[in-house]
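Encode chain A's predicted structure.
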Amino acid sequence: EEAIFLRKKITLLRAFSLLIGSMVGSGIFISPKGVLKNSGSVGFSLVVWFACGILSMFGALCYAELGTRITKSGGHYIYILETLGRLPSFLFLWAEFFAIRPANSAVVSLAFGRYMLEPFFAPCAAPVPAVKLVSLLGYYVVLTLNSWSVTWSARLQTALSIVKLLALALIIVPGMMLLAQGHTENFQDAFDRQLLVLDKLPLAFYAGMFAYSGWFQASFVREELVRPERNIPLAVIVSVITVIVGYMLTNVSYYTVLGTQDVLASPAVAVSFVQRAFKGLISVVPVLVALSCFGTMNGGILTFSRTLFVASREGQWPPLFSMIHIRRHTPLPAVMLMFPLVTAMVCIGDIYHLMNFFSFSRWLFIGLATLGLIVHRHRHPELHSPFKVPLFVPVSFTIICLFTVAMSFYSDPVNISIGCTMVLSGFPVYYLIIHRKMSSHCRSPFYYLTHKLQLLLEVVEQEIKTY
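Encoded structure for chain A:
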């Protein structure tokens, strides 16, 4: 009885919660080990954390401008499509679906499972099969919620954002108290150059940028944002500054309480911190961290489903995934599509190998998206944008992204080569299926299958343009 389309239900507060909830996830609780291992010392690791924060701010500002110039949802995909063309956008979509997003979701899910079980098995490590089972159960709960209601998934994100900030506060406060009392012994020789290996620095940046990743999430739901021209830049700037301050204080607290060897030896840095700082909250903080990861999973599903939705609408993905549930007004097929790949990666994956595996592809395409901003400015000088950043911001961000991607071939050639192969494998698919249209004889079985699935899932195409 009413039009079927994605409603504008994401207010400024919900956009802020989405960004905070996506950035503050498993990264700050597992990445300190990766940053320290590849930077070599406490001092250089803090420099990497701050540099990653500034780099994230540059990228967030670029995406805020792109979000005011390009009015469609879809994030990286739609920005590359509108600025650089159909081939690079399809390669991103291909790599994102088969590598970047399932690996990222698997990392966060595994962190959720590990921290959720930590209080029950401490001081021993939780069994790996149990961690993977709990990880999958958490992911399936979030998947179901996003299929059910956009409003409830947004409300959950707001509530969990408060939990995330509380978890950071429980780490920051005792660390700062000890630091104020003069416990600075772990910062002696903080910039020891003997352990610094330059070709490992890209991996340190990957680990740090993974912790900050999520600053781009508002661009994925642009069509569902209330007053996006105002709310995207405002939510981006406030949330990234908040996270930079929180992360720097959290890392200082880690190093105040734990030594370098303790951080490197810990499978869960936040749990080791609590065990050393105050034993009374051993069972509380891991649960808060797990809920923090739960919020990141929720934000990831909420945003990536919109990428598949928009790609289907643009003709680069099967048409079923541009359809919306007739009563729930959620992109149900796009939400459910990640189910099998994430399940497989959780079952077979390891957190740190998965992190390097997907980071190459992610930062390659983010660099291309900000390059697209420069191209778009050059092609459309007449276009008025309500939010505009200085040119050196997209230029410097693009150069750093592409340089880090190139350097990573020396740091971790095996995982990076796998990621590169995954991207390149999209070329034949694009030219055989997307570029060359299939004949009507070949398309008829797909139309039949789409029709049957449409009836089964109760979904139809969007009736009103929201861009």
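The radius of gyration is 22 Å.
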